[in-house]
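REQUEST FORM: STRUCTURE PREDICTION
Request ID: SP-0412
Submitted by: Lab K.M.
Chain count: 1
Length (residues): 394
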Amino acid sequence: MAQADGAAGKRAAGRGFLLLWLAGIDLRLTILAVPPVLPLIHRDLALDEKAVAVLTGLPVLLFGLVAVPGSLVIARIGARRAVIAGLLVVALASALRGLGPSAPMLFAMTFVMGAGVAIIQPALPALVSHWFAGRVGLATAVYANGLLIGEVLAAGLSLPLVLPLVAGSWQWSFVVWAAPVLATALLFRFATPEAAPGAERAPARWWPDWRDARTWQLGLLQGGASALYFASNAFLPDYLHATGQAELVSACLTALNAGQLPASFLILALASRLTGRKQPFMAAALLGLCGLAALLLPVPAMRIAGAACIGFAAASVLILTLALPPLLAPPADVHRLSAGVLTISYIVTFIVPLLGGAVWDATAITAAAFLPGAAGALLVLALAAALRPVRARG
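STATUS: Completed
RESULT:
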């Protein structure tokens, strides 16, 4: 009997890890399906560059604005049901983006889709707390790895695979990318019990405790890493053009994004040793600063390596920060802490690159392109130095 119970427990754990990984993929799959087909959307809907910027930036803005309402949804229906509802919203809205085709429908459904993702994001740490209280670092690394895989799949397969499959229609490509999201929602619905492992109950509280220093510490920590990553993504192409090495744009951006995956695999392998400690955060911040310094060197190999270091550093901090709310908060409050952290982090992510662009415009100094990234890395370094060790709950 004991062996049977052990085998059943292993199957349940494996199923839980798989579902978390699939949900992580779905966090970015439909969003990153947009950039590859932007030229087609631009052509068919006659969008100007401002509209294109809004289309690509709207989901990220909603991640911050809807995180707290997402916490309310979790408080009312529970984390598992919130994930299912969020996945259904994302799948439906993604499929409807191309209806018409119509610019108002595209923007409206992009808004709804971003809101769906914003509900899922604070629900996943809550599920990690309920399902894997003793293996928070590993479970977090699993769905964070899925998130990064989702970015790679959408960006890499849209043009060579999906568009030919749908005769070049960007509208139907959105429907194709919605299908796996719907499949994940159905798996959550039928492959997990109504009461999740750990006897999940819908908690009553949902508003983040803005007076809790941990909310701000983790929010700014995650925001610093996101600022490092997004600012580098935004300013690296223009910087390389300005310094006469435009031919490195593709290689550096590929290295920046591909550098995230080794970080997720490393944390998967060493989750128990890395989670909840300040040293990995500080090492990642220093690596990010070294990567920025390498980008200033007029040596192609150094610039590519520097971009990869930045991606690795930003992903490491992101994953390790995502693991902290389930470790720090009681299970019934994980969604509240996560919502507050996400709200702060995405506001920082939006503001810091904006200020960096303004500095570059005002000074006309090309190296100013990396001031936002440096500010983000220094923010991580300072906050990590004050981080107290956190141990997993038994």
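NOTES: The radius of gyration is 21 Å.
Reviewed by: T.R.
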